[in-house]
Automatic annotation (TrEMBL):
<dbReference type="GO" id="GO:0033539">
    <property type="term" value="P:fatty acid beta-oxidation using acyl-CoA dehydrogenase"/>
</dbReference>
<dbReference type="GO" id="GO:0004361">
    <property type="term" value="F:glutaryl-CoA dehydrogenase activity"/>
</dbReference>
<feature type="domain" description="Acyl-CoA dehydrogenase/oxidase C-terminal">
    <location>
        <begin position="241"/>
        <end position="388"/>
    </location>
</feature>
<dbReference type="InterPro" id="IPR036250">
    <property type="entry name" value="AcylCo_DH-like_C"/>
</dbReference>
<dbReference type="InterPro" id="IPR006091">
    <property type="entry name" value="Acyl-CoA_Oxase/DH_mid-dom"/>
</dbReference>
<keyword id="KW-0274">FAD</keyword>
<dbReference type="GO" id="GO:0000062">
    <property type="term" value="F:fatty-acyl-CoA binding"/>
</dbReference>
<dbReference type="InterPro" id="IPR046373">
    <property type="entry name" value="Acyl-CoA_Oxase/DH_mid-dom_sf"/>
</dbReference>
<dbReference type="InterPro" id="IPR009100">
    <property type="entry name" value="AcylCoA_DH/oxidase_NM_dom_sf"/>
</dbReference>
<dbReference type="InterPro" id="IPR037069">
    <property type="entry name" value="AcylCoA_DH/ox_N_sf"/>
</dbReference>
<dbReference type="InterPro" id="IPR013786">
    <property type="entry name" value="AcylCoA_DH/ox_N"/>
</dbReference>
<dbReference type="GO" id="GO:0050660">
    <property type="term" value="F:flavin adenine dinucleotide binding"/>
</dbReference>
<dbReference type="InterPro" id="IPR052033">
    <property type="entry name" value="Glutaryl-CoA_DH_mitochondrial"/>
</dbReference>
<comment type="similarity">
    <text>Belongs to the acyl-CoA dehydrogenase family.</text>
</comment>
<dbReference type="InterPro" id="IPR009075">
    <property type="entry name" value="AcylCo_DH/oxidase_C"/>
</dbReference>
<feature type="domain" description="Acyl-CoA dehydrogenase/oxidase N-terminal">
    <location>
        <begin position="25"/>
        <end position="135"/>
    </location>
</feature>
<keyword id="KW-0809">Transit peptide</keyword>
Length: 395
């Protein structure tokens, strides 16, 4: 009979469930490496970047050197890690800020994955090594101002002109748009929805920064405009047929969110615990009051449940492939709970919680965007409902 490990006086939230026991050595090492990068390189600047609504372009190369860009892809300069390792990297990045995870997610799971999964060998060879290293930046143009949850109705159009394609239309809410060297753009054609690899220096292509954001400020969000953008036939993604292609890319990005959102929750909770332990109220630490401990305990339970769910989905993805409704399950629960945790942590900080000195309100603001992008909570509810009933209530 083995004896239990000796108890310690104070545990970090995820230590209560011994979450690290569920990871192998490589997974723990990857998480620790990304965590150090966030602490040493990103956290010192995040408040200023959030306040000034900027994301330094040079971070792309640093993310590439770290090995997180397209890290779950094989070859072409990509690390070829498992899905769980990618998820853990997303968690650590979003513990810094959702903008960091969004950059890496869009680069690897949307821009790179679309080329990796649906592109020609020529397209892969031309772009994936550059994107993996951070020497080039990519974006993914699917959403339009009037077509978010219903991308099938997109108005962007591609028509054949001789042996070329001519693209016209606009895309909205595009992360990395103004930084990008290449855009994967989805458009209606006479043969259905098709994808195109569009170098952003192509005549007729422009990107406009979206200003006055209250959320995801340490991230570049843009409108893409395609005005008679002429592309050779080789720009089309040859293996993308119909709406299923871009939706499969979104599932890759949503998987990262399942993990990433919990990083924002964990950081908020750790910040609140540290604050309440050193903040005296009525001549005793705020953390010693029952109401405070109830809040901290409830948030720790929800965070732990979310991490177990994320790891379960990651193991399924690595073993046999995770289904879209399972991704919906994870994103719906984890983002919803992460947002609730960040908001609750802000209350424990009192007036100090509204400043950028502390992270919970910044995380909460960011999670308001994460709640609705890559599929709104309502759409994920209906995805689960369709799986349970066989009826597509959103059609």
């Amino acid at each position: 009979m083995t004896s239990a490990a000796p108890a310690k006086d104070i545990y970090a939230p995820l230590e209560l469930l011994d979450v690290d026991r569920l990871l192998d050595e490589d997974e723990r090492d990857i998480a620790a490496t990304v965590r150090r990068f966030v602490e040493n390189r990103l956290r010192p600047g995040v408040a200023d970047w959030f306040e000034s609504a900027t994301l330094p372009r040079e971070l792309a190369k640093e993310f590439g050197d770290l090995g997180v860009l397209g890290m779950h892809l094989d070859g072409y300069g990509c690390a070829g890690t498992n899905a769980v390792s990618y998820g853990l990297a997303c968690m650590e990045l979003e513990a810094g800020d959702s903008g960091f995870r969004s950059f890496v997610s869009v680069q690897g799971s949307l821009s790179m994955f679309s080329i990796y999964r649906y592109g020609s060998e020529e397209q892969k060879t031309a772009w994936l090594p550059l994107l993996a290293s951070g020497e080039a930046i990519g974006c993914f143009g699917l959403t339009e101002a009037d077509f978010g949850s219903n991308p099938a109705g997109m108005r962007t159009r591609a028509r054949r002109v001789g042996g070329d394609w001519m693209l016209n239309g606009t895309k909205m809410w595009i992360t990395n748009g103004n930084l990008a060297d290449v855009a994967t753009v989805w458009a209606q054609t006479d043969e259905g929805i098709r994808g195109f690899v569009v170098p952003t220096d192509t005549a007729g292509f422009s990107a406009n920064v979206i200003h006055k954001k209250l959320s995801l400020r340490a991230s570049v969000t843009s409108e893409l405009v395609l005005d008679n953008v002429r592309l050779p036939a080789s720009a089309q993604l040859p293996h993308a047929r119909g709406l299923g292609a871009p939706l499969s890319c979104l599932n890759e990005a949503r998987f990262g969110i399942v993990f990433g959102s919990l990083g924002a929750a964990r950081d908020s909770l750790e910040t609140a615990i540290a604050y309440t332990r050193q903040r005296d109220v009525f001549d005793r630490p705020l953390s010693s009051f029952q109401l405070t401990q109830e809040k901290l305990a409830n948030m720790t339970v929800e965070l732990g449940k979310g991490v177990l769910l994320a790891l379960h989905l990651g193991r399924i993805k690595d073993a046999e492939g995770v289904r879209p409704e399972q991704i919906s399950f994870g994103k719906l629960n984890n983002v919803r709970e992460a947002l609730a945790i960040a908001r609750e942590c802000r209350t424990l900080l009192g007036g100090s919680g509204i400043t950028l000195e502390y992270s919970p309100l910044r995380h909460a603001n960011n999670l308001e965007s994460v709640l609705t992008y890559e599929g709104t909570s309502e759409m994920h509810l209906l995805s689960i409902g369709r799986a349970l009933t066989g009826h597509a209530a959103f059609r």
